[in-house]
Amino acid sequence: MTGIAVKLFVKFQTLMSNKDGQGMVEYGLIIALISIAAIAAILLLGPKLVTLFTNVNTSLTPPTP
Question: Which one-letter DSSP state was computed for residue 19?
């Protein structure tokens, strides 16, 4: 019985010390946060940008004779 418990403990310690995929998970989280921030900025600033470019466009169009 003790041998099985020791083998399970060693296997558990091996699994807990394996950190191969940790860097990829961190990069994935960073990319997800940047994406959420970009989408939020576009949703919040989108209407203001449309208004700004519309005003610039109307200011640059030549008057009709």
Answer: -
E strands within the chain? none
Q: Specify the DSSP class assigned to residue 49.
A: H
Name the phi and psi angles at 44, rounded to 5: -80, -40
pLDDT digits (tens, 9 = 90+) for 34-53: 999 999 999 999 999 999 99
Q: What six digits make up the tokens of 60?
A: 């640059």
Token duo for residue 50: 């449309």
Distance between CA atoms of residues 24 and 61, nearest Å: 50
Question: Residue 38 and residue 54: Cα distance in Å, rounded?
Answer: 23
Q: Give the pLDDT of residue 38.
A: 94
- The pLDDT of residue 19 is above 80: no
